[in-house]
Specification:
The chain is of the alpha+beta class and 199 residues long. The chain has a single domain (3-195), classed as CheC-like (Chemotaxis protein chec), CATH 3.40.1550.10. The protein has five helices and seven strands, in the order αβαββααββββα. The chain has helices spanning 3-30, 46-54, 83-93, 107-132, 183-195; strands at 34-45, 62-70, 75-82, 137-138, 142-146, 157-168, 171-182. Strands 1, 2, 3, 4, 5, 6 and 7 form a seven-stranded antiparallel β-sheet that branches. A hairpin with a 2-residue loop joins strand 6 and strand 7. The longest helix has 28 residues, at 3-30. It is globular, with a radius of gyration of 16 Å. It starts with a helix and ends with a helix. InterPro entries: CheC-like_sf, FliN/MopA/SpaO. It comes from Desulfobacter latus. Keywords: Chemotaxis.
């Protein structure tokens, strides 16, 4: 197996650890059994991310939770859902039986999605920060509706992309966890993956 593929497997394990922590927190917050799976992890540069995003079949747009983190280990975390899946998530969390699709989101809707995204980003980034032994200071999350995501990423940045499946009650909701770093911080992660002995 190539070294890069080994890196991806270990990083996927780290992200899955953070996802597991997030699911546990959400279970307690919502008093509901939440399961979050992460079948695919990708490491992409700006151009590769742009190509990957163009191949997504999410033409209706996204609802995006975005959270910056600073300090020695800086970057940004995003959790996003296609609009239809975002609505399904809201209906599931709030026990609403609404099969009609409305692409508008109320302030309460956005707050609920923001809480879910914030929990996931904090848990995943916290797990990675612990691994590189550098503290990250997370800012407040923002929640927006976007037509595309590549404009939120600068040239010269690298992306960890985790495609997630979020299960709550009978609903199966697809989404993406996205962590964006500078090349330097991505190298820091990969160096720790290569030389760390805590995995």
């Amino acid at each position: 197996m190539e070294k890069f593929e080994i890196y991806k497997e270990i990083i996927a394990e780290l992200i899955n650890t953070g996802i597991g922590k997030a699911a546990s927190i959400l279970n307690q917050m919502l008093n509901e059994e939440i399961e979050i799976n992460l079948p695919t992890v990708r490491i992409l540069d700006h151009e590769q991310f742009m190509e990957w995003e163009q191949n997504l079949n999410y033409k209706e747009g996204f609802v995006v939770v975005n959270q910056d983190f600073g300090g020695e280990f800086s970057g940004q975390g995003m959790v996003y859902f296609p609009l239809t899946n975002g609505k399904t998530l809201i209906n599931t969390l709030m026990d609403l039986n609404d099969d009609t699709f409305d692409d508008s989101f109320s302030a309460i809707d956005l707050d609920a999605i923001g809480e879910v995204g914030n929990t996931i980003i904090n848990s995943v980034q916290g797990t990675i920060s612990d691994m590189v032994m550098v503290e990250s200071k997370l800012g407040l999350p923002t929640v927006t509706v976007k037509d595309e995501l590549v404009s939120m990423i600068d040239h010269g940045q690298m992306c960890l992309v985790g495609e997630t499946i979020f299960r709550a009650k009978s609903a199966c909701i697809e989404g993406v966890v996205l962590l964006v770093y500078s090349y330097e911080n991505m190298e820091l992660i990969l160096r720790n993956v290569e030389f760390g002995d805590d995995f």
